[in-house]
TrEMBL record:
Superkingdom assignment: Bacteria
Keywords: Proteasome
Organism, scientific name: Streptacidiphilus jiangxiensis
One GO cellular component term: proteasome complex
Signal peptide (UniProt feature, chain positions): none
Protein name: Proteasome assembly chaperone (PAC2) family protein
Amino acid sequence: MVELEDVPELIDPVMVAAFEGWNDAGDAASTAVAHMDDTWGGKVFAELDAEDYYDFQVNRPTVWMDGGVRRITWPTTRLSVIRVTEPKTRDLVLVRGIEPSMRWRSFCQELLHLAHELGVEMVVILGALLGDTPHTRPVPVSGVTSDPDVARSLELEESRYEGPTGIVGVLQEACAQAGIPVATFWAAVPHYVAQPPNPKATLALLNKLEDLLDIRVPLGDLPEDARAWQLGVDQLAAEDSEVAEYVQQLEEAKDTVDLPEASGEAIAREFERYLRRRDNQPPKTGD
């Protein structure tokens, strides 16, 4: 573990976490955190000891060349800090890693200890799951929490899920028990195109995070990548009549479910979001 002396005092810090593996269909969630880290030049200040949490026969280290010297990168979880300045200044503590193989409770306690030391005000966990959703429609993103107060204040669903869970579910419960406000956002990835990457789902998670934290994430090539991804899946579906028919069935089911609010609350929410994003755009040259 790297000491925290080199980390400056943070401004309204929020921890945003994502983990590769069972909780990360299409690598959508881990790619969202990686995008923010790369875009804002995140500075890694800590990493968890790989030997404490990972089975190296499951998650193997990789060998690479660095100026003619062989190096080994061990699978682990790393934490970095970025400073967001638009539309207001706040710091994000990004947690990027792989779902641990063992000692999940100790893993969560170590993350919560760091959150406490850094003065983190809230934890947001990103995940992605496979679902019966068509690739041609907006990616559904559901926000849940196990904290009734957070559910009311952020207008999220209170989690009622029962069944097998991953590190996302365990960390959410650990945060709630520690009294740290926590929310989890799940993007639904079409199960018939589960292979990564899925830039459309990554984009949907980033948009949801923007709305929640009132920040603006530079999206770079992601919107174009999302459009290209959808066109590519369109072409694949067109080449297989059974897949095309199945996608049509999913579209009809989705549209039927959405129809009652299509002309009401959904449009109002999208219009409010459009106005917020337009107001946050920098003025064009000559304005």
